[in-house]
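To the wet lab folks,

You asked to see what we're planning to order before we commit. Fair enough. Below is the target structure as tokens, and below that is the sequence we designed to fit it. If anything looks off to you, flag it before the synthesis order goes out.
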């Protein structure tokens, strides 16, 4: 059996042209699409991600601004700043970098972003509309998983998809998106009993746990499709949630790095471009 390596780059590139065109149109109308990323503290992974996202934004012709706030910034200060940005007509999209430091309620910060500038579906009204199937802008990483499945022509109808993880940014929204594509979906989490047996039944596995090598070969049905969302640092290297021997049993899988992360960044850009008028 040949294994398909579902690289993220070609998927992201497939979106590049239309996003660049939308940004150019907005600029021609005198509106510079501008993304503001709010980074509180100096978590190394968040800093790297923020810089990459800013570079990507600029490479597509839009503007990026990083607001760096010290670790000790209060929740109220962050929320007040976001409310100011909501009113600033020169700002198109606002992305508070998650997770926030422990003393800040990330949900409250996300809720402060106006629904019209919310590029990662953090605003509860946007999340509710997405839940009801009335909004296509789901959280970016969840959309990235679906973009990979679509690009590599993975048929989902009637397939059993098992999502490991139930966070608001990945597990829950990706489960909903899979349902919209007519998969039969099971969501597993830290309290799931007999998790390995459940995952073994999956035609499609979405691993969003945040634990290196969590999905082992014995959990994977031969020929399953695996989307590895996890990003974990082990001995200075980035690895996913799926062990290499498990990926070897798949008919198709996304690598880490070079898989979902690259697409996820482009999904932020897609939403920014859509908000730009
Ligand atoms: P999270 O909020 O920590 O959620 C992790 C989920 O995994 C939780 O639902 C948790 O279950 C579940 N889990 C933890 N231990 C488990 C276990 N032993 N068995 C079964 N389930 C278990 O993380 P997240 O924000 O969803 O991120 C998940 C991973 O994706 C992380 O590695 C993160 O770095 C990565 N990520 C990647 C991208 C990208 O662009 N590629 C973007 C964002 C995040 P409970 O709910 O029961 O606690």
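Sequence we intend to order:
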């Amino acid at each position: 059996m040949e294994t398909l390596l579902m690289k993220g780059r070609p998927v992201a590139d497939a979106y590049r042209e239309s996003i660049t065109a939308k940004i150019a149109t907005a600029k021609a109308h005198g509106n510079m699409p501008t993304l503001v990323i709010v980074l509180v503290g100096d978590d190394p992974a968040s800093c790297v991600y923020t810089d990459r996202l800013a570079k990507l934004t600029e490479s597509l012709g839009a503007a990026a601004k990083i607001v760096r706030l010290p670790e000790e910034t209060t929740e109220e200060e962050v929320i007040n700043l976001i409310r100011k940005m909501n009113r600033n007509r020169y700002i198109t999209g606002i992305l508070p970098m998650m997770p926030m430091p422990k003393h800040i309620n990330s949900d409250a910060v996300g809720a402060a972003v106006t629904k019209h500038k919310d590029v990662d579906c953090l605003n509860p009204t946007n999340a509710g509309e997405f839940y009801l199937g009335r909004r296509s802008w789901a959280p970016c990483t969840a959309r990235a998983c679906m973009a990979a499945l679509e690009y590599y022509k993975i048929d989902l109808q009637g397939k059993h998809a098992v999502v490991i993880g139930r966070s608001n940014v990945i597990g829950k929204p990706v489960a909903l998106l899979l349902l919209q594509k007519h998969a039969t979906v099971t969501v597993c989490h830290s309290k799931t009993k007999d998790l390995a047996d459940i995952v073994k039944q999956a035609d499609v596995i979405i691993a969003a746990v945040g634990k290196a090598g969590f999905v082992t070969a014995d959990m994977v049905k031969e020929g399953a499709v695996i989307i590895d969302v996890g990003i974990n640092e082990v001995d200075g290297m980035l690895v996913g949630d799926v062990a290499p021997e498990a990926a070897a049993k798949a008919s198709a899988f996304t690598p880490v790095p070079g898989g979902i992360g690259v697409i996820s960044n482009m999904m932020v850009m897609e939403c920014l471009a859509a908000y730009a008028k």
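Structural context that might help your review: The pocket of NAP is lined by residues 141, 164-167, 169-171, 188-192, 195, 208-211, 229-232, 260-261, 264 (CB under 6 Å). The mean pLDDT is 97.

Thanks,
Computational group
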